[in-house]
Amino acid sequence: MIKLENVSKGYSEGKVLHTILSGVNLNINKGEIVILYGKSGSGKSTLLNLLAGIDLPDEGSIFFEDVNITALSEKERTLFRRKRIGFIFQFFNLIPTLTVSENLKLPLELNSMPFKKADEILGEVGLLDRINAYPDVLSGGEQQRVAIARALIHNPDFILADEPTGNLDFDTSKQIIDLIDRIVKQQGKTMIMATHSKDVMGLADRVLTLKDDKFIEMN
Amino acid sequence: MKIIHRSSLRYIFKHKLQFGLSILGIAIGVAIIAAIDIANISTSKAFNLSLNSVTGKATHRIISTSGSIPDSVYSFLRIQKGLKDIAPVVEDNITIGDSTKKSFVLLGVDVFAEKPFRDYTSSSGSDNKNGFKEFLTAKNTIVLSAENAKLLKKSIGDTINASIRGIKKKVVLSGIINNYGNPSQLENLIISDIATAQELTGKRGTIDVIDIIINENLKEDYVKNILPAGLELQRSSSRSDIAEQMLSAFNVNLNALSMLALIVGVFLIYNTMTFSVVQRKKILGIYRSLGVTENEIYRLIISEVLLIGFIGTVLGFLLAILISKNLLVLISRTINDLYFIVSVTEIEVTPFIVLKTLIVGIAASLLSALKPAREASQSKPGISIVRSNQESKILGNIYKLSVYGIISGLLGAAILMLPSKNVWLSYVGVLPVIIGFALMSPLVIKVSDKILTPLSGKLFGIAGRISSRSIIQNISRTNTAIFSLSIAVAATVGVGTMISSFRETVVTWLENGLKADIYVSAPSLISNSNDPIIPYYIRDSIINMKEVRNINYYSEFKLFQDGKLINILASGFTDPSSKDFRLQGNDDEKVISKFQNGEVLVTEPYAYKNNIKAGNVIQLKTDEGYKDFKVAGIYYDYSSDKGFVSIEYSVFKKYWKSNGLSGIAVYLKNDKDAETVRNKISSFAGSDVELIIRSNKFLRESSIQIFDRTFIVAKVLQLLSVVVAFIGILSSLMSLQLERNKEMGILRAVGFLPSQLFKISTLQSILMGLISGLLSLPLGALLAYILVFIINKRSFGWTMQLSLEPRVLVEAMVLAIVAAVLAGIYPGYEISKISPSAALREE
């Protein structure tokens, strides 16, 4: 489970301090899919950055099970992220100089895992025929499917997704939502997804929105 | 191979032009350094080989302070003192040949004493074994190596024309040495019997050197004790030590200058790597979000640079081997002009050069990549990856960078002002000055933007405004390109001004010093040195000519004293008012009077290098042992960086034996015709004595010709650094073109014509060239000042007048703009071809 204790984060612009999150407390259970809903600039991405250990909170602690990632060094946080977190981005963020297959093998190599899982997961996302293609010849939907496969291939416990359908048309978005529903849910992963689209709400166990610098649950 | 490395390689191949240019930049930089090293080491090796061929197995040599040893001394040591392993040698320079001429060292040896020293005479491959017997009995016979006989197209029995000590002779080839160990060893050598050598060189009854082998049976101290006065026991290796001493300042400056292109190359790699990091910021961010650590990213970038550096260094080394042959010709010609005779035909690549080149090439590449690698490793693994705004980072820190720049410049000034004569330290001091300017260049770009953007907008409309604005908008890339070009151009200003200042000083010195109408000298293989071989009767005949008002005459003489070489210049004049010394201080009459009364004068380089001031006493080894000489004054002289001790002729003759004169300056009576006098002097000499009789103007012109020749290497190196800078700005403009694809696509989409995009790109190149030029002028002037007043002084001891010509500054501006415009043509062409749809499709 993930636990946020009194987490605050702000940024300064010159001498002015802008608070984004203030004293956030949050518990996310194992296997739960939580959606962070809100308009652009509401602090969703900031929270995802904190959860990934990319940024550190100004105050408070973040626990992944019994690991307090805010107490880890930069290197330890990176290694934690490498092993236990999978990312899905709005703009896919595949490495343009690597083929589909190599993009998938990258997390396996970083975690010293065998490569054989790459074909299997590509089959699951329906892209076995594009295994040697470079990202620039794939459609947006295909790229996002590869990105989802890459986020899951090393079997992380937690999936963080930032507007995964934000750059896709309605039909493709639906396919991606189905895919996430099928794979992520089936595998019982914990997932936190930031979005401003209501189309993905069906996936969620819980939907949270930011109000007065704090997340509250939506009905 | 790891997947991230595979990705890197593909990125490099995708941007092969940028990385290719970086490799080329480092290759040229490395090639110059390696080529200079190869040329220097080859020259030194050739010189040592020719020395070894003369020295053979002798551990020591007995020499005379006045240059010649009576035959009787050899007999005394061998017979009366019972020294066995000694051999007499006569050694001189000789030029032989008919259609093809070549200069050699003539080695006159005693075949019977030779065996322990040199084994040419017993060489198994010698043709005509009798050759060595013949040259004992037949007149003027010599032995050559097979290679030289072939070069001169001569065979055994042929008579060959020779010129030795200014006198024409004929020699007969009596033997050829085949298959002798290393043929290069005999490349500069002619062997003859000692009696023949004495005859040919006019040294009847004397020898130059007695070679000796010192070992457990024969102690050094014993030999020293039994030597008659005026003789000195010297280690055989001390000659090569002296040669090294003579060349050290020359080599240091050559090596330092050779680094210029590499310094520019470092900026080029820095630029390429910065660009590649900025362009891959997104990829690096993805890596980080996937769990690649900072150190892994750092190592990734460093491994890319190592690859580029390694390829560049290997290519550079191969290039060095190609260009070193040409450099060798230039360098050995300068050494022959200024220092000693050396003939180098083979290049020498030693493991040291290979290792040094590898280290320098790879270290320079690594150095240039440290900052980009650090920036890459600090890429934020953002979920919404934001493109790093390096521009605003630089712009925000402009004033801070400028302050650092001033501090760096002051640090350089402090190093340069340290009371040291170390030339390398001076070059170390130059580096912070250059870095200081580099740190201040963003400020210059910002100020230029304020002036150039409105101006360019007024002149060229929106295209002009875009061109100028994009320089500051892309300052992280344009800054390095502008600065690399400005360093290369500043070096052109600095080195150009140093050369012109030096030239100007030498011309003034020649004009003030060369006042006589006619100059008589003996032919010499070294342009700035003349052996004392003009017979005295020629001087006496000239004095008695009715057309002659008065004369100055001099003998040059090399004094080997305690492992050091001191150049002695014995000067005599018939009228003290025609003295040609340009003395420091204002008390000429008094100083000359002291000089005539037995005190000595020293040249400025001699005084500087030996810490001598007027009034000091120097000790010189005369034929009668050590004598003290008071220094009457110091005079300016630009003919030798080793310097001279000048002694009045009658004083010189009192302490040393002299063989003749090196030169005579003849002052004519007002109405007398120089050509007539010249012909008369030639007739005194007769057809056997070769004299060079030159007018004042001709001597001045030929001196300047030699001067210009010695700076060809510097000019070539300077030009090559401009080539590297050109590559740098080309690479930078290519990078900018890639970065601005989308912007240009938008411009095309809103109706800009391809020609207008080309105009934007070209205008930008012109403006970048202009800013580089402006930046290079103060840096160039500063470099000129440092080169003229600090580095030159510490290297050679000369005082020069700084002559910063407006022409040099205008040329620098033109060079910067032309280089930038030429470099901008291809990127401009590429920009004009941009397809708006393709550019806009990019995410």
Write a brief structural summary.
Chain A is α/β, with parallel strands linked by helices.
Can you tell me about this structure?
The complex is a heterodimer of chains A (219) and B (843). By secondary structure, chain A is an alpha/beta fold. Chain A has helices at residues 44-52, 74-84, 100-110, 117-124, 140-152, 170-186, and strands spanning 2-13, 16-28, 33-37, 59-64, 67-68, 85-88, 158-162, 190-195, 206-211, 214-217. Chain A has a single domain (28-56, 71-217), classed as P-loop containing nucleotide triphosphate hydrolases (Rossmann fold, 3-Layer(aba) Sandwich), CATH 3.40.50. In chain A, 46% of the residues are buried. The two termini of chain A are 22 Å apart. With 843 residues, chain B is of the alpha+beta class. Chain B has 28 helices and 21 strands. In chain B, the strands form three sheets. In chain B, strands 12, 13, 14, 15, 16, 17, 18, 19, 20 and 21 form a ten-stranded mixed sheet that branches.
Separate helix tally of chain A? 6
CATH homologous superfamily descriptor of chain A: P-loop containing nucleotide triphosphate hydrolases
Q: What proportion of the residues of chain B form beta strands (DSSP E)?
A: 15-25%
Rounded to the nearest angstrom, the radius of gyration of chain A is: 17 Å
Please bin the fraction of helical residues of chain A.
25-40%
* Tally of DSSP β-strands of chain B: 21
Q: Helical content of chain B, roughly?
A: 55-70%
